[in-house]
Amino acid sequence: MVVTEIGNDEEYDQIQSNFRPVRRFLTRFVFLTAIIPCLLLLWASKIQGEILWALGQDGSLGGVKLYLAWFAFAIEGLWSADAIAASLVKAASLFARYRPRLRLLGDNVPCVDIIIPVCNEKLDIIQDTVRATLNIDYPAHRFRVIVSDDGRNQKLEAWVLQLAADTSNLYYTARVKYGPAGYKAGNLNHAITVSDTLPGGRAELVAGLDADMIPEKRWLRACVAHLIRDPKMGVVCPAQLFYNVPENDPLNQQSSINWLCMDIIRDHAGLGWNLGSGWVVRREAVDDIGGFPTDCLVEDIYSSMLQMAEGWRSAYLAESLQYGLVPETYAAHVKQFARWQYIGGAQMFVNFKGYLSSKLTKRMTLAAKLVGFSSGINVHAKAQLATVFMLLTPFVFLTGTHLIYWRDEAEMKLLLRLYCAIVLTRYLHDCHIGVMAGYRVAVMETGMMRYMSHYYTVAWFKTFFLGKPDGFTPTGSIANSLQERNPARRAPFRERLRHILFDCGAWVQLSVVLAFASCASLQTFRVLGPHWMSGNWVFNRDMWVELLKTVAWPSHLWFPTMLGCLTPLRYALRPPSVPERDRLLGKREENGARYPTEEAKHVRWSLFEVDFVVLYTLFMGYVAAVFVGSWWL
Known about the structure:
By secondary structure, this protein is an alpha/beta fold.
């Protein structure tokens, strides 16, 4: 079998075209901008902790105010608890080699079973995926396409069987489910079992595509090449890109920070996850772990971690080899990300016992354990802390509790400079990530946790305390009755607003915005009101210091949280418009396959959109001004 390495000038790729040499070079040092704010926070936390302890001991601060002060202090520290471990993983980029682009040549290629698991997605979407899969650049007698239908859609079955009459390598199957069915993992395991009974027997490799993911013709040759070159490579997975992302991506649905940066950094550390679609796995590696695990909602990532524990390697390909669909509704977006980024990861952390048990992690690398541990701490703490923060911050303002405490002017200036430096270096890290992923994408990731935290917390509580997880619902099967993004068929404003506020729970974000804004205004009036009522309209140093202490401290999370919570409210008031799917796809080829247009593959960005990114950038300007001004305070 012949494998060759290609350059960017030989074959255009949307992702690789963005990786100019200077960007690759700068990304190598991303761990520096990641670790600096962590070290600064440790320094500042030591000082603030000593101050709070001393004030509590001498009675200068007590009661509710002392407890709230310690709470705010703990939130700040715990919020960054996973950052140091994550920074160590990022250090792998300093000397790592970027994964080369490989291609498998000729007709002497391994057999591959391509599974398309479906469950009640729209028929036309599945049809486009199946046709494009049959149209890949790979010898037809060396791959089989298995449509594994958990929805038992009779129309889909009839269409597949009709197409299969003229296509020798297309098959349809639907399982009979008893008891816990394992959701997508169970569907994949069923299809693998079925593949063993097909003419030719089991294939050496197994691949998977989501029902909405249209593969590029070069997809299989690009992925299989890495498995051929490295006999211990267990799984290879490319980036997931999308062709229906709204202008400015107001909900951060494309998750480009992962595909364009974080997954590359993890791959530098030898940790390329199976990310759910487009993957190609060695059948032997699947057998080693007993099939796809059914006790976790992210069977894809979990399976790759289990394979690493058995000594298999994994790879992430930063290539644009497939294009799919982001959820078309706010409700579907919330449900998808709660499953992807939170509950599944939390289940993995529990199943691996915090990645601290050598009996479970076995031959897993240190980097894999660090990533698993830091991610687990993240999903079991960060959203929950953010939700508690939302609940208690109004009480901080109403009780007159200070956002920061000091004992003398020297401590005040030191803490002010330290905490400003923490915020600014975190922002510098966002900008550093933005070198690869794009500035807007990197900053929007900061806001996403703010507006998604209570959804994550509710899902986490239902899963781990009530024992009633929401389970798996295929995103493509969630109803879109309000047509939020279709300007011609969009439901009336009042109906959409009611749906997002009450059915989707955005009343929580509205309450946070109103509570934070009201309490901060009240606190500001408490500071400035007496001066104004006494006729003193001159803003002086004492007034500014008091404002810093009570409402305007740059590192406190209340203002970024309020900005983040504006995101779903803004979406409800002004939803984006997306063209019909047919308009995003090009002309059909001879076998009926069609692919996203070049225009649809790229997200459009507007310079005049006032959203979280713009407001957060202005806030960073405020922090920078306070930092500089602290030398004249």
